[in-house]
């Protein structure tokens, strides 16, 4: 027979402090018969009586007096463990996220997580830093950049500018500078897309269609890239969500399809699974990804 040592000791301590089984049960917040059964089970387990039941009051036997300090320590330790468990549930999950996530969508993700008793603490970082933050245990999990076909979340990229058509594809070859001497137009890659599986593919197409090396360049920041686009005929490599936020006209790239892929990387597999399974659509909105699996 398995004995509930903690429950039995809690009843034992409460009855000893109250001086009666009825008052002790009330102190332990359990019915009096339950307190009596738990103490009886404890006595059977130890093979000795804890209380002298020949009087109206619950008087400790010599054995009971000897066992009471240990019982109190066990109850105190159990209470401390319960407290620690509650604190552990509330411990924030530090999550490294892309710098492109809008504040409103992050707030909605945070609210959705709290409804599931998951408490998030965000740390924005460039793509190359996010996986490193997990490795050094500075965060518990990160939304890391992966090739589109490998991503749990996928974000299609295109080219956006201040003018021109919003329909049909935009071919990079149309940016080629001819003998007419027209102004040089650039495509700006923001830091979030400065990863080999996106940047290098775009560079290869740039070279294959005869653009100058400077016509496809990596910007120091999204703000800097957007500023360059607002002040010229330049184009920004971005998602449709970003283009809408910036008020730019977005079109897919004619020569290739570029897709940001995102996956959860975590020190513990259960952290990654919990974020992936329980907060999929909310993370998708933060990333500007399609909300279909």
UniProtKB/TrEMBL annotation:
Top-level lineage group: Bacteria
Keyword presence, Transcription: yes
One Pfam family of this chain: HTH_1
Keywords attached to this entry: DNA-binding, Transcription, Transcription regulation
Protein's UniProt keywords contain Transcription regulation: yes
Ranges for domain HTH lysR-type: 10-61
SUPFAM superfamilies reported for this sequence: Winged helix' DNA-binding domain
One MF term in the entry's GO annotations: DNA-binding transcription factor activity
Family assignment from sequence similarity: Belongs to the LysR transcriptional regulatory family.
Protein name, UniProt field: LysR family transcriptional regulator
């Amino acid at each position: 027979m398995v004995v509930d040592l903690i429950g039995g000791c809690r009843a034992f301590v409460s009855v000893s402090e109250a001086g009666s089984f009825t008052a002790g049960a009330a102190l332990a917040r359990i019915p009096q018969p339950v307190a009596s059964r738990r103490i009886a089970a404890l006595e059977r387990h130890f093979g000795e009586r804890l209380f002298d039941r020949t009087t109206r009051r619950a008087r400790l036997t010599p054995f009971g007096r000897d066992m009471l300090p240990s019982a109190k320590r066990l109850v105190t330790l159990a209470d401390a463990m319960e407290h620690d468990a509650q604190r552990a549930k509330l411990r924030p999950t530090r999550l490294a996220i892309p710098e492109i996530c809008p504040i409103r969508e992050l707030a909605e993700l945070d609210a959705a997580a709290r409804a599931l008793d998951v408490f998030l603490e965000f740390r924005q970082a460039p793509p190359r830093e996010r996986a490193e933050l997990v490795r050094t245990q500075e965060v518990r999990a990160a939304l890391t950049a992966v090739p589109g076909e490998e991503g749990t979340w996928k974000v299609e990229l295109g080219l956006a500018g201040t003018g021109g058509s919003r329909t049909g594809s935009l071919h990079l070859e149309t940016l080629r500078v001819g003998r007419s001497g027209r102004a040089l137009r650039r495509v700006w890659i923001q830091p979030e897309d400065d990863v080999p599986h996106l940047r290098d593919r775009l560079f290869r197409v740039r070279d294959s269609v005869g653009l100058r090396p400077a016509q496809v360049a990596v910007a120091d920041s999204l703000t800097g890239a957007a500023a360059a686009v607002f002040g010229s005929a330049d184009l920004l490599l971005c998602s449709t969500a970003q283009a809408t936020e910036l008020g730019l006209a977005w079109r897919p790239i004619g020569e290739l399809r570029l897709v940001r892929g995102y996956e959860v990387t975590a020190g513990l597999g259960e952290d990654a699974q919990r974020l992936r399974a329980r907060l999929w659509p909310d993370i998708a909105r933060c990333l500007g990804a399609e909300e279909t699996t």
